[in-house]
Amino acid sequence: MDSFVTQTKKRSEWSIHWEKEHHCKKFKACDEEEGEEEESSIEEEFSHPLPWKKIEAEGLDCDYAQLFPKDEADRLFKQLEEEVEYFTDEMAQVRVFGKLHSVPRKQATYGDPGLMYTYSGVHHLARPWTPTLEYIHGAVTKATGRTFNFVLVNRYKDGSDHIGEHRDDEKDLDPGFPIASVSLGAARDFVFRHGEARGRNARRQVDPVRLELAHGSLLLMNPPTNQHWYHSLPARRRVLTPRINLTFRHIISPQAPGPSQRPRPSQKLGPSQ
Predict the structure, then answer these.
(1) How many CB atoms lie within 10 A of CB 132?
(2) Which of 109, 152, 252, 266 lies at a 20 to 30 A Cα distance from 103?
(3) How far, CA to CA in Å, does 85 sit from each of 36, 107, 127, 128, 155?
(4) E-strand spans in 176-270?
(5) Cα 219 from Cα 213, distance rounded (Å)
(6) According to the model, what pLDDT value does residue 43 have?
(7) pLDDT tens across 80-136, in order?
(8) What are the angstrom distances between the C-alpha of 193 and each of 53, 93, 159, 181, 202?
(9) Model confidence over 196-221: pLDDT tens digits?
(10) Which of 20-29, 87-96, 175-184, 257-266 holds the top average pLDDT?
(11) Distance between CA 37 and CA 20 in Å, rounded?
């Protein structure tokens, strides 16, 4: 697994580091003294500072942190197993070249009222937030300073479930917003690959960026990452336990309500929700 660079490292040092390493996959952590000097800048960028680690490459900009301790992550995973209703039948499929194919994982969509998300030729209406999703949503908002209005839930039963290389660049998504990915359950490998370095006829040689998403972690994929890089969660036979991934997004929709219309964590959700 590749190591990370902490966010506290100065930008001028980043460019020097990348020139020396030729965009290599391994990163070095900065000294504690440097982290203390830049602590104020982190507090300005994020409303609830975490020990963020920066992941950078050409056109790739991500932040990584441990959002929940193990005990809390265990509790949230168990609650999601009880609350989340996953798609069935055609809603659990994707359209490829006009034909529907089963997805090698379970999926569900939740969010603000009236939001619709379309990908792979299938339209997904957001269900109302569950209490646990609302709680995690609040933690992500505090950590990032961003308010997301939608979440895509993916459940991987074990290492055989996976997702292929893709970009989250659907027209429904606000391109100026990051995507916040929360991982619960089994740690899984996550791979970024530059769009010009894919396939046999790749136009360039750019090393992929690999990392492991830990139980309770948060990965923030900032613009312009999804314009230039594809990402995937490859199959891993050695992984025998399930994982739930929550990707919080900001959907552009004329039906999207304002923040004041969103249910608060303290509000009880009705039977239909």
Answers:
(1) 20
(2) 252
(3) 44, 9, 9, 11, 11
(4) 179-185, 188-194, 209-213, 217-222, 229-233, 243-249
(5) 8
(6) 44
(7) 999 999 987 555 455 554 555 566 689 999 999 989 887 666 778 899 999 999 999
(8) 20, 25, 20, 17, 11
(9) 999 888 889 999 999 999 999 999 99
(10) 175-184
(11) 24
Contacts of 114 (CB under 8 A, 6+ apart): 126, 253, 255, 256, 257
pTM of this prediction? Answer: 0.73
Strands (E), the chain: 5-6, 53-57, 60-66, 93-96, 99-102, 106-111, 116-119, 122-125, 150-156, 163-166, 179-185, 188-194, 209-213, 217-222, 229-233, 243-249
Q: What is the DSSP string of 112-143?
A: STT-EEEETTEEEEPBPPPHHHHHHHHHHHHH
In one-letter notation, the amino acid at residue 219 is: L
